[in-house]
Each structure stands twice: as C-alpha cells, then as structure tokens.
Amino acid sequence: MTEHQYLIESLPQFKTARVLCIGDVMMDRFVYGSVERISPEAPIPVFLVDNEKHMLGGAGNVVANIAALGAGETTLLAVTGDDINGREVAAQLASIGVKAALATANDRFTTVKSRFVSGGQQMLRVDREKSQAIGKDVEAALLASAEAAMADCGVVVLSDYNKGVLTDSLIAGIIAIAQKHGKPVVVDPKGTNFARYRGATVITPNRKELETATGMKAASDDDVRAAAMKIIIDCGVDAVLATRSKDGMSLVSADKPPVHIPANVREVFDVSGAGDTVIAAFATAIAAGVPMLAAAEIANIAAGIVVGKIGTATTRPEEIIDVIRSSQMSPAAGYDITAKIMNRAAISEAADKQRALGRKIGFTNGCFDLLHPGHLSTLAQAKATCDYLVVAINSDASVKRLKGPTRPVQDEHARSLILSALGMVDAVIVYDEDTPIETLKAVKPDFLIKGGQYKLEEVVGYDLITSWGGQVVRADMEDGFSTTNTIAKMAG
Asked: What does pTM read for this prediction?
C-alpha cells in the first residue's frame, strides 16, 4: 500500500455524502482579451474582448465543487435578485445537479464579479452587488428550508462572503437546528467577529482572516496554533482548519496536537475560489464519514489542483487520485506521460487556461492505429501552426464502426500512450462518437488541422470552427504511407 492509499480509498465514499450549503451565491464573469493600444480618448488601455465565461461564484462555487467531487446529493440555500443573473445562477445549478432553494429578494440584485484578463493577468475587477442584510421574511424562509433539509444531510456548510445573507440571527438559527439534529457545521468565515459562528464544528479561515480576527500573527506553525486556539476558546468552535497559501494548512483542535500539512501545489495560475474548494472537499469528506485529518489532507490536495486552473474552477476525484499517485513516484521515474491523456472536462479546462495565457490552440483527429511517418509529418505540421496541440483519437468502438471488425490493431490506451510520448503533442483525448464534433466544442481550437486530401467543405467541423473565428489548415500528405497498406503488407 502506498503512503496515501487510504486517501484514494476514501474517495469512493463521497458518493454517499449529502451536503447542505447556505450562503452568498454569485456569478463570476471572466472576460478574456488583449490590450494592444492606448485609447485616443484618455490615457487608458483598450481591452479587446476575445471571449468570456460565466461561472458560479461564492457559495455557488462551493456547491459546484461538491458536485464535481461526486457527492450523492448537494443542496444550496441562497438569495438572488429578480434578474437575469439570478436566473442564470439557477440554470447553472440545475445543470450540475444541485438542488437549490433560491429565495428572491426584490430589494437587491444578484452579485456579479467581472474580471478582465489579458495575458494570464487580471487587469480589472468590476463588482455589482448590494450587501445589506436580507429582510426578516427572507431569513425566515431560509430557516424553514434549512429545517426541512437538515435531517437528510451529513454536514452543513456556511459559505460567508459578507454579502448580507448570513446574518447573525440566521447563523445562530442554522447552527441551533444542526445541533438539534446532530449535524456537524463547517464555516468559511468573513469579518473580524468569529464569535458569531459559536457552536460550529470547524471554521476554515485563511492566514489573513485568522490574523485579522485574532489580532495575532500567523506566520509560523506556532503562531497559527496560538491564533487558532484563541478562536477555539473565545468563539466556542471545536476546531480550526487554517489555510496558509504556500505553507499549506494547519488543523488545530482543543483536544489533539496540531497537524501542519505541507502545501501540494504544482503550479499557481489563478487563486480565485481556492477557499471554496477547500471547504467543499473538506465538508464532502466529513459527510462521507472520512476522519477529519484525512478530510483536511484531501482538501489540501484539491486546493493545489484548482489554483493551477483558470477562473473559479472545480476538481474531480480522478485528479486527486492522479496527484496522490504521482507523489509516490521517485524522481528517477521521470515525467508521467499519462498526464497528457485527458477526458472532456479536463481538456476544456486546459484549453481555457491556454487561451488565458494568449496561446493558440491546434486540434487534429484520427484513428492513429499504427503510427507511421505520414502521421508524424501531419502532427509536426499541426504543431507548427499553434502553441498547444490537442490530438483527438477515435475510441476502439468508434474505430470498429469506421474501419471494420478487425480494427484497431492497437487499443485506445496503447494509441494514447504512444501519442503522449511525442514532444509535439500537448494533450490527447479519446472520443467515442463517430465524429469529433463534441470534442471540438469542448476545446474550441483556433486551428483545425486535416490532411490536404480533404476539401474545406468536406472537413468535419469546418462550419463549427469558422463560427468562432477559427480556421481549417490543410497539412501536406506524405506519399506512400497509410495504416491500411501497412497492415496489408504485414498480412503478406
């Protein structure tokens, strides 16, 4: 058994988790583009928009992470305005299978945070929000919904972004209901008065929040332990899970020695929503019956994954497993080429990240059954057109439908590994459909590269890629090479 095999074995338990989340839901809007000139109207940059993405933020990102982690049931209680953004929040929650009871407040609008990103850097953030406390009628509706949902949940999450939903009286009411039902309460806190969370099981402040709430430094391990103990004693909570950026996390409770968990970050790209991932992974694990320390270790790994993604991202169990397994490899084992093999969700995230960095994405597809010089020539030409090359290959079932029952000669796993070993290939994905259309939609490349024997109108996906401003590039073909002919020669 590997050192952290117990964490891998914990992840299948997530499907039994039932999580109830209450908090401030919002929409995170990421606008990507470029700045190439200064406005003639004023000494300010002109931001040329390329594309934008709308993602669930705040408590919405918490439940999106919980759902992505495979929880059996996720419920969100929150407040939106009677506006188009509130309706988009509801639609996105429904699309990921989250049960939502969204109270509509006529005196406020749905919080939207718009971030403008160029070259991988945020240039400007624009917030649209009203953060006054919700009315007593809305508060009563949330309490009633919490009471109705409490018996069936395994843990309660309070996601506090200080936008007026989690009033002192609502927090006290929800914690009282949770205690009556014997449910643990995990809180992502805001503000300086953590006593308002009295009775919670665990709170998860970051370093700055811990320092602000206690008036104490939180630099060293001993500093964090002392500040966390002050919170535990003064505010009446059972434990503190403090997130410390590059220094990892610290789990401090009144009756056990503190545990300091080193950071598990491979690359920091965007820290937006990392705290949401921490509380989502930790709470899901707790709801699944995972011990608190193991839950914290899983949350630490999950946080290290999402800060390497674009925007308010989520993580999936298979990504956590990959990190755990890769950490067991000795340096002599070398680079794990299987990291290039991705599913559709992962390839979409990877493409978004490349776009945010201002890099051009290329896409080519085929069976690639027996790799020959013709394939290598096409791949080399494809790579020459772009910064990041995605190769999509037909699954075994798809190849059989296209080529007949004797094909493929090599199964999809072998074909994926061979392609991943090529330096010119940046990502590989297997698709089961007869055409790569759905994969093209997920990647949204700048260039679709196909062999020169095809006319433009014959290229599958031509209409699709041109619809978002991409283009088809035809590669020159190497004469005398084909998989079919190679197999025929082998047959004698």
From this structure: 0.74
